[in-house]
Amino acid sequence: MDRQKKRDFSEIAKGIVDQATGEDEPPLRKGKKARMSPAAELGRKGGLKGGKARAAKLSAEQRREIAKKAAKARWGHKKSEGPK
Known about the structure:
Radius of gyration: 26 Å
Helix content: 55-70%
Oligomer: single chain
Number of helices: 3
Shape: elongated
Order of helices and strands: HHH
Largest sheet: none
Strand content: under 5%
């Protein structure tokens, strides 16, 4: 049996009408390649600017402390010893 996404009656009916009228369009994609809404696009633009703007405002000492904290979080855990 074919593995297809289960669709309800209205989706099947719309597909049949679209095929009959020649307006058969592929369903909207989900995931990264989906079209973004205008609000999402604006949010993304702000998000891309945010890290650079924050880094520009921080002093060298503040950046150093943040980097130390990040390194400790990543590498500071105790390594377990092998079997005894």
